[in-house]
Write a structure and sequence with these properties.
Order of helices and strands: EHEHEEEEEHHHHHH
Structural class: alpha/beta
Strand order of the largest sheet: 1-2-3-7-6
Helix content: 40-55%
Number of domains: 1
Radius of gyration: 16 Å
Number of helices: 8
Strand content: 5-15%
Shape: globular
Largest sheet: 5 strands, mixed
C-alpha cells in the first residue's frame, strides 16, 4: 500500500482549501506497470481532481461479470469507479497503455460525479455531447462515458484531442482543468446556501 501525498497546484489554491489523502493499494502484486509510473501519472493531475477520492485498488480476484449497458453487452469490466465508496477498482489490464487509459477514464468518472459543478455537467450533457463525435466508440454509450474517454484523451493524448475534437478539448481546458471556482461542485453549494 502507498499513501499518495501531492503538492497543491496553483489551480487548486484558487479553488479553495482541501486535502488530498489517496491510497494506492495492491499494485505491487502486478509487474506490468511500475508503481512509480502510476504515481507519476496521477501526480500530473490537478489535486482538486483527486480530493475526496479515497483509494485506487488493484483487485484482480474481484472482477465483476459482464453486464448489459444501453442494450449492448459489455464484457467483464477492467475497472470501475464506485461512487458511494469513492474508490476506483482495477481488475485487469494487458499493458501500460490500456492501464493508463483506464485509470484516467475512471478518475474522470470521479471528476464528473464528485468534482465539477452541476452547470458544467449540464452543459456537457445537453450541449457538448449530443450529436458530437466521440474520441472512442465507447464514448458513444452515454454522456458520462464520453466525458471519461475525452478526459483520458486530454491527459494522455492532448494534441490528438485538440486536432480531432477542438470543442471538447476547449471544454476540458476551460471548464474541467482550469480550477476556476465557478466550475466546481463547491460553487453549487455556495449558491444554494
Amino acid at each position: 500500500m502507498r499513501l499518495f501525498i501531492k503538492n497543491r497546484t496553483p489551480a487548486r489554491e484558487t479553488a479553495g482549501g482541501g486535502k488530498l489523502n489517496l491510497l494506492l493499494s495492491g499494485f505491487s502484486r502486478q509487474d506490468v506497470v511500475p508503481v512509480d509510473d502510476i504515481v507519476r501519472s496521477i501526480d500530473l493531475l490537478p489535486s482538486f481532481h483527486l480530493e475526496g477520492l479515497r483509494e485506487i485498488a488493484y483487485l484482480p480476484e474481484y472482477a465483476a461479470s459482464g453486464f448489459f449497458c444501453n442494450g449492448f453487452f459489455r464484457g467483464e469490466p477492467k475497472g470501475e469507479f464506485v461512487q458511494r465508496e469513492r474508490r476506483i477498482f482495477v481488475y485487469h489490464f494487458d499493458g501500460p497503455a490500456m492501464f493508463f487509459q483506464m485509470l484516467h477514464h475512471e478518475i474522470a468518472h470521479f471528476v464528473f460525479f464528485q468534482v465539477i459543478g452541476s452547470r458544467v455537467k449540464k452543459r456537457w450533457v445537453t450541449e457538448v455531447f449530443p450529436g458530437s463525435s466521440c474520441v472512442t466508440a465507447y464514448g458513444r454509450v452515454n454522456p458520462w462515458e464520453d466525458f471519461a474517454e475525452t478526459y483520458a484523451y486530454y491527459v494522455l493524448h492532448r494534441r490528438v484531442l485538440e486536432k480531432e475534437l477542438p470543442e471538447k478539448h476547449a471544454f476540458m481546458r476551460e471548464y474541467v482543468f482550469s480550477g476556476s471556482p465557478e466550475n466546481l461542485k463547491e460553487s453549487d453549494r455556495e449558491e444554494t446556501g
